[in-house]
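Format notes (please read before filing issues)

Several people have asked whether sequences and structure tokens are stored in separate files. They are not. Every record keeps both together, in the order shown below: the sequence lines, then the token lines. Line labels are part of the format and must not be stripped during preprocessing.
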Amino acid sequence: MALLRWRDPMDPFTDLGSLRNAIDRVFGDFMGRTRFTPFYAGVYPAFNITGDKDNLYLRAELPGIDPKQINITATSDSLTIRGERTIAPVGKEVNYHQREREHGTFRRIINLPAEINTDTITASYKDGVLTVVMPKSEAAKPRQIEIKTS
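Then the structure lines:
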């Protein structure tokens, strides 16, 4: 019995992913690459942004990258992560049968949901995860408003 993937017939974006994959495969074969490029390709590194009343927290997956090769810059409303991912050479006589691990330079510009104080940002790197703590500016922090009665 074959399993079929469910598709929402009313979703106009359902076929865009498969169209992009088909185009990427054609150009990949034309350019001498045989890798499969998923719909979300090119979005590297993957990250999550969370927040509380005082800070925003960005956690980005950057496995195998030397933290010295990561450059972080910030403005009051955005954060930029740049770096280079290298893969150790495997030899001149080696042919790849499948290659999914990419290498090269990357840059992500992340628009932040609140204004931050760029003077007190901290960053740490552990087990391939970059964690950036961004304190919110005083103007972006929630304030308690007192209600006056007459």
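For reference, the curators noted about this record: The longest strand covers residues 78-85. The chain has one helix and seven strands.
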